[in-house]
């Protein structure tokens, strides 16, 4: 039983590191879709002090198209500021995949438009000029709602 977190073209290493740590702690699967804004080689991870990476169930995909070729038939939730549905309105199930776009641009607009019924958002104040939440914070918020709905499988 697992939830899958999919980061499409992540750019900022600490965000991905934070999400990887959460994935390891929750037995979630982390997918990284290239291009990445950083290196995943052992030397880079060791230098960053990311000693929990061996505990991360990780899949790396060459492109969003390659990811969709492999997993396009699965239930996908698109975390985006463009979503009509609040993330708590999603009915998460085992093996669902939650996609997050890159920090500076989000998910591609045409990708969202083709799956608008699966686009979810985190409510934010309309009086601020913030575009979105930090990627690692947003991933944690949505992931823990999915895990809560599933009664925190395998976690104590």
Q: Structural class from helices and strands? A: alpha/beta
Largest sheet: 7 strands, parallel
Q: In DSSP terms, counting alpha (H) and pi (I) runs of 4 or more, how many helices?
A: 5
What is the end-to-end distance? 15 Å
Could you characterize the architecture of this molecule?
The protein is α/β, with parallel strands linked by helices and 156 residues long. It has one domain: SPOUT methyltransferase, trefoil knot domain (Alpha/beta knot), CATH 3.40.1280.10. The protein is 31% helix and 18% strand. It has helices spanning 13-26, 42-47, 64-71, 109-113, 135-149, and strands spanning 4-8, 29-33, 57-61, 76-79, 85-86, 97-100, 119-121. β1 (4-8), α1 and β2 form a beta-alpha-beta unit. It is globular and about 40 Å long. The model has no long low-confidence stretch (mean pLDDT 91).
Q: Notable features of this structure?
A:
156 residues; alpha/beta; Alpha/beta knot; 7-stranded parallel sheet; 7 strands
Short description:
The chain contains five helices and seven strands; from the N terminus they run E-H-E-H-E-H-E-E-E-H-E-H.
